[in-house]
């Protein structure tokens, strides 16, 4: 409790905080809530822009025919799987850039963005080459031979040319979040997606390019957004030459984040597989609730992005106690945010599923997953917030190990037991619940230990 002699003092520097001081001693140091919101709100729009564009793309192609829509769905899944494994270009770059920015070394922070961009171009070129070779076998493995796979391959082989630019955009988001600039990424992503949303129906329907028109529009969006991020690097006056040593350091952090992403993919692919083997109604209900889960994960992830930037900057500036205090501060924000979302979606349990389907078999299965989804929102709010804290600290090895352990001892055993014992969606979503609760315990213990809070511009 602060006494009447307490006064507030602004602490300068990146991610400035408010200190409450009594008698010359430090009592409390908090990051203003408006600072957190100022970073999280634009990040949320950037995170939501891609799913919203996919909805527009789906609607446009859907009117071209069911076969084209099926090809887009399959091709889109394959493309997304590749991009998902390379998110270290965003999250890893944020962690490294934020520390340098906090230490007052903005030029070097931007330099992390330069090296991440070179990595993005190199990895993206490899994805293009391998993708052209593997597109057909991968599509036929998932869908079997036939017109759906053929359409997916036609779309994917064009869309893959956008892969280097998607990765450049990830890297651009990473370094800009690191220097606590979330406004420019918002503009860049909206410009690219906005132009493409207009171009897509023109190419698909007016030019009658069909599904291939959708792929071309995607590539145009990705080139535009990436070009804006590259222009921003040039405007910073950073050294644009590649530095292999820095890129190797980024890849070291990336290795742990890729393994963590693979654990997520193994879990959710297993859940989809078991749901598909349960019944048509079960797989439909799982898809509806899982898409809502994914959307709310993006909403909560915006808070994690703000936490990454602020924690990284605090540790880079040597403010270890501020980073530790902020970890618990953002935990509170995540908990409140999650409770609010849980209450909202509990109230929508009746009408909202009807927006997605009128099929009675699906609707009858939805409650078996819905109440797990609702109850997990407060847990997700805390877990995602602390994920952001630990990512901002560069504690990727711990997050990798924690995620693999939670998958191996929680999600996967219960999911496959559900298949063997006929538990249906209750078993699948019990697996997700165990996964989240194990992660909750592990990240809380790690945060309490303080071992993650290593100060310095680099680690």
UniProtKB/TrEMBL annotation:
Pfam families named among the record's database cross-references: MatE
Chain segments carrying region Disordered: 1-23
Gly residues: compositionally biased ranges: 12-23
Keywords: Cell membrane, Membrane, Transmembrane, Transmembrane helix, Transport
Places the protein is found: Cell membrane
Membrane topology: Multi-pass membrane protein
GO cellular component: plasma membrane
Gene Ontology molecular functions: antiporter activity; xenobiotic transmembrane transporter activity
InterPro entries the record matches: DinF-like (IPR044644), MATE_fam (IPR002528), MdtK-like (IPR048279)
Location (main, coarse): membrane
CDD domains given in the database record: MATE_DinF_like (cd13136)
Homology family: Belongs to the multi antimicrobial extrusion (MATE) (TC 2.A.66.1) family.
Name of the protein in its database record: MATE family efflux transporter
């Amino acid at each position: 409790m602060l006494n009447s002699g307490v006064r507030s003092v602004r602490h300068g520097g990146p991610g400035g905080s408010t200190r409450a001081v009594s008698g010359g001693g430090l009592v409390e140091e908090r990051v203003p809530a408006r600072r957190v919101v100022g970073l999280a709100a634009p990040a949320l729009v950037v995170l939501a822009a891609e799913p919203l564009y996919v909805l527009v793309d789906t609607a446009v192609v859907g009117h071209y025919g069911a076969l084209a829509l099926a090809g887009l769905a399959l091709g889109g899944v394959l493309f997304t799987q590749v991009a998902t494994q390379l998110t270290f270009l965003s999250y890893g770059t944020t962690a490294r850039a934020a520390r340098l920015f906090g230490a007052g070394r903005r030029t070097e922070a931007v330099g992390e963005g330069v090296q991440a961009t070179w990595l993005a171009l190199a990895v993206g070129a490899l994805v293009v080459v391998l993708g052209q070779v593997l597109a057909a076998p991968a599509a036929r493995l998932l869908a079997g031979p036939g017109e759906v796979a053929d359409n997916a391959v036609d779309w994917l082989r064009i869309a893959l040319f956008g892969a280097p630019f998607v990765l450049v955009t990830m890297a651009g988001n990473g370094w800009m979040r690191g220097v606590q600039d979330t406004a420019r990424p918002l503009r860049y992503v909206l410009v690219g997606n906005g132009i493409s949303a207009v171009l897509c129906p023109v190419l698909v329907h007016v030019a009658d390019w069909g599904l291939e028109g959708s792929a071309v529009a995607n590539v145009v969006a990705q080139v535009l957004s990436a070009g804006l991020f590259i222009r921003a690097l040039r405007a910073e006056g950073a050294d644009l030459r590649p530095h292999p040593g820095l890129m190797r350091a980024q890849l070291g952090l990336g290795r742990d984040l890729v393994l963590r992403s693979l654990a997520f993919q193994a879990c959710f692919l297993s859940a989809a597989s078991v749901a598909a083997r349960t019944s048509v109604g079960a797989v439909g209900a799982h898809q509806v609730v899982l898409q809502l889960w994914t959307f709310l994960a993006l909403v909560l992830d915006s808070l994690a992005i703000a936490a990454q930037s602020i924690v990284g900057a605090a540790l880079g500036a040597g403010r270890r106690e501020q980073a530790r205090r902020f970890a618990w501060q953002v935990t509170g924000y995540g908990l409140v945010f999650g409770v609010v979302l849980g209450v909202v979606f509990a109230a929508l349990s009746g009408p909202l599923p009807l927006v997605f389907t009128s099929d009675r078999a699906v609707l009858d299965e939805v409650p078996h997953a819905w109440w797990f989804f609702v109850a997990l929102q407060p847990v997700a709010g805390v877990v995602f917030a602390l994920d952001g804290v630990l990512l901002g600290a560069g504690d990727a090895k711990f997050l990798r190990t924690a995620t693999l352990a939670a998958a191996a001892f929680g999600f996967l055993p219960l999911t496959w037991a559900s298949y063997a014992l006929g538990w249906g969606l209750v078993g699948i979503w019990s697996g997700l619940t165990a996964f989240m609760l194990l992660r909750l315990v592990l990240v809380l213990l790690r945060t309490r230990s303080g071992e993650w809070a290593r100060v310095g511009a680099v680690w």
